[in-house]
Specification:
Blueprint: E1 4-15, E2 22-33, E3 37-41, H1 48-55, E4 63-68, E5 71-72, H2 78-87, E6 89-93, H3 104-114, H4 121-130, H5 146-157, E7 164-168, H6 176-193, E8 197-200, H7 204-207, E9 212-217, E10 220-226, H8 230-238, H9 240-248
Parallel strand pairs: 3-8, 3-9, 6-7, 7-8
Antiparallel strand pairs: 1-2, 1-4, 4-5, 9-10
This protein binds adenosine-5'-triphosphate (ATP).
Length: 249
């Protein structure tokens, strides 16, 4: 069994003309091991969202490859990539993206139904139990707080036991105490359940819950940090200009 959940190789994404267009990604090589929690950071426009979109198969790279669970998915057709997103990738967004007219349990079961699996109501309840929301299974998103909605979204993201969960600013809309609860939950999913998470964030506190941080600058990997602390990440972000200079060399 491959030990890498996700690998990207020489990944490039050019928007517009190949010569004069924007190189949103410019030769990115990254490995995301199974059971790892990686934060992706970098200035606005550095390519973080483009990286997630390419890994999710929402966007096609101009060059390079995306390998998920040992399978090169780069050239899969639209149908196969839709199945990939439904079955092998979980998503957590800043603004939760729950279906407003479905209960918490129905939202959690939705990926299983879309993947054509028999939706066992007990599984949705178990997943909600894991995120501390067993009592709220029958509630609609509008009846839940922001932090509770994000817990439902996390239970949903892990429902299909995906190869990787892609989280885009998962704590961006939450107050700092609620954000820490959510980050602890993500950390537990990695440590205890061997899930794999790739999280885009601007927040050094959020990044400090990860095993490592990848810094992107101008579409390139400008640095890595293992065992990040809040101070070390904030310090690196304050000196991104030095990373930029190193990339330009
Ligand atoms: N559909 C598109 N068409 C043209 N240019 C695009 C498109 N999507 C992204 N870009 C450009 O690609 C670059 C990388 O964008 P991306 O959204 O990946 O950055 P980001 O690091 O996620 O930024 P932010 O932190 O602001 O979300 C930017 O210069 C952006 O303007």
């Amino acid at each position: 069994m491959d030990t890498m959940a996700v690998q990207v190789r020489r990944l490039a994404r050019v928007y517009g003309d190949h010569q004069t267009g924007v190189r949103a990604l410019d030769g990115v090589d990254l490995d995301f091991p199974r059971g790892s929690f990686t934060a992706v950071m970098g200035p606005s426009g550095s390519g973080k969202s483009t990286l997630l979109s390419c890994v999710a198969g929402l966007d096609r790279p101009t060059e390079g490859e995306v390998v998920i669970d040992g399978e090169n998915v780069t050239f899969w057709d639209e149908d196969a990539r839709t199945r990939l997103r439904r079955e092998r990738i979980g998503f957590v967004f800043q603004s939760f993206h729950l279906m407003p007219y479905l209960t918490a349990a129905q939202n959690v079961a939705l990926p299983l139904r879309l993947a054509g699996r028999k939706a066992d109501p007990r599984l949705a309840r178990t997943l909600l139990d894991h995120v501390g929301l067993a009592e709220r299974a029958g509630h609609l998103p509008g009846e839940l707080s922001g932090g509770q909605q994000q817990r439902v979204a996390i239970a949903r993201a892990f429902a299909t036991e995906p190869a990787v969960v892609l989280a885009d600013e998962p704590t961006g809309a939450l107050d700092s105490a609620t954000a820490k609860d959510i980050l602890r939950l993500l950390r537990t999913a990695v440590t205890e359940l061997r899930q794999t998470i790739v999280m885009v964030t601007h927040d050094p506190v959020a990044a400090s819950y990860a095993d490592s941080v990848v810094f992107l600058v101008d579409g390139r990997v400008a640095g890595h940090m293992a065992h990040p602390t809040v101070d070390a990440v904030a310090g690196q972000l304050a000196h991104l200009d030095e990373l930029v200079a190193a990339v330009a060399r």
